[in-house]
Amino acid sequence: MPSFQRHVFVCVNERPPDDPRGSCHAKGGAAVRDRLKAELKARGLAKTIRANNAGCLDQCARGVSVVVYPEQVWYGGVTVDDVVEIVEKHLIGGEVVERLLMPDQPHVDARRRLPIVSGAALLGVLVLGGGVARADDGKPASDPPPTKPDPLAQAKAEDANLESDAPRQGVTISFAVGGGLVVGNGTSETIPAASLRLGHVATPNTVITLEIAGGTFQHKESTTSDILYDTSGSALAGALYYVTPSLWIRGAGGVNVHTQDNGTAGTSKMVGPAGAFGAGVDLIRRRFWVFGAEMFAITAINRNGLLVTGAMGIGLSHY
Q: How far apart are CA 255 and CA 301, in angstroms?
């Protein structure tokens, strides 16, 4: 996971227009957020400073509210025109923008709000305070240790980031294989089953999926008792949602094609709507690869009636 030096939360909370408290969204929160992202990207800071959406920060009356972590500095009444100053003065220069500070922030370091001392005044201080200068023994002052990102801010950022910081990003591909049971036309058979899914990460917890799933099963011809093989395949579109960092559920809808072997009479194809539901768990994660277990069921309707396929398997995914 990327390590950011700072997280900047911009309130975009929205309330009804008649709410007396107002809302940061109505005051331009989204525009402030977008300008902040653009300014960070233009300066090459997007990998060290993260701009985040924030829900209600309980300060909409002073909105647009902006909070900088790990310093925990709260700004109020921020407009699009203030963004550049916050970026250049605070995020780059390390000095708070005093005119935008919300009241009652005793934790804010007062030294960061002092005016810049002129060169002549600074020289006078060094001369008068020679004892302090000699205490350094001519050694240059060491830089302060780097500030670690606030853990709470990073945890919130995983859910509120404008761009996903989850281990799941971009285009995904998953393949699962196993066995199951197909029930239809008054019979049931065990089958081998496989599923191939392509997807795209929509949010830190949601993946939009396109899936091809199918299996082959056998049946006996009624007159000759020959073993014949049928195939069932489905093309589905849906979504997969991570309930926890490792446990997920999914649903999809699409079309099923069932090919029935009729022996000497040839084959017949039956097409109908299909729906799928599944759940799984990520067991092992190594960089972009995930090994897991899953189960799913596909229900299809064709002219012969209802066809239900249930399967369990193991899968390999690349995020």
A: 9
